[in-house]
Fold this protein.
Amino acid sequence: MSAVVAAIASPGAEEIFRILTFRAGYNTSAVIIGAIMLGVAAGAIGVFALLRGRALMGDALSHATLPGVAGGFLLGTWMGFDPRSMPVLLTGATVTGVLGVLTVLFISRHTRLREDAAIGIVLSVFFGAGVVLMQVIARLDIGNRGGLQQFIYGQTAAMQGRDAMVLALLAVLVLLVSLAFLKEFRVVCFNAEYARAQGWPVGVIDIIMMTFVVLVTVVGLQMVGLILVVAMIVIPAAAARFWTDRLFVMLLTAAVLGGFSGYAGGAASAMAGGLPAGAVIVLASGGVFLLSMFFAPARGVVAGVVRTKRVHDRTNRQHLLRMLLEADEVGDAEGLTRTGVRSRRAWPGRSLGRAIRQLRSGGAIDVDPSGGLELTTTGREQAARVTRNHRLWEEYLVRHADIAPSHVDWSADLVEHVLSSEMVRQLEESVAARGGALPPSVHPLTGDPETAQG
């Protein structure tokens, strides 16, 4: 364990502050800024790839770039160029990357194979071809081939200021195109068949979308490598999905989360010293995803558990209120006690005691020392509303669904808690139109039935 700790640098507080504030040197700042820009670009375009169901297309694309990198190296050597020139290598990566995407689309559209099978085929074959070409290069008696393998895992430390500038321009371009084509991308992502029926050029829009996925993938090769670049496209977009249901907000959120992942990962790599920056950046984005998955207020796991618990509590409170009101209507004194309530309904765990405490705290019931439960004016009003909704739904099922009255109570138990005022009005009109008798309201003070109007 001590050897592991010793292998990881432990900078002081001053050094950490300098790294976080972009004052730790030119190269370090360039790497962090480049990581931020890559995260912004990948997060933004990743939203549309994710919603279009093309998240794994980036995986096929990234693996398809390897033979392009090797081919660009060989072609540059043969033509007398610098074979390690970044434009030459990235041009080759772009060519085979686009070829890989087109191959996936061709297989999925013109054969009976699904897109996931096509992606698996293209990913494996292209990557295998790239590995073979890499072995060929290793056996050739040529120089300048060192470091070519770094394209697989990334070579973030080799980034310079001009690379960060290219990533910044790419991020701005992706954001501008995403905003300019927001309506078109939205329609194609959510309902491509509808867009096609309305005369939208779905194929052209898909090509525009995938073109920017290709650009982000190819430009991101140097930073995180072809294996990990797909993570920068998928993870920030998936994390943003937990925060909102609106596409525009999701687009901006994914860009912010991607940029923050790049910042956190680049800074952490600089602090640790020696750890591969690309892998650390992806790990940072994974941490952002986990935080979003658990703690996002819109779709997070914790928020979902809280909402579910609140629904269960409200349902139990309303069940208890209706039981007390119905017991009071028929003069069932035992039904107005804790023991009587428990004997008439299965209450899981401590849910009955929790419901009693919540209703008592809200002023809906009073509890006497002997265990008797009594509805207050507030509680009687609430119970009257729930009871009427329950009986109204029962009447609707009997009149419209032709269900026997003895079989509708269970369904009404589930539905009575979610009926809005508009739904209640529509149910009343539907029942009245069939000649059914509307269930009477209950007077909130006396508990006596009132004559229903309408």
The longest strand covers residues 365-367. Residues 442-454 have pLDDT under 50 and may be disordered. The chain has two domains: 19-296, 300-454. The radius of gyration is 32 Å.
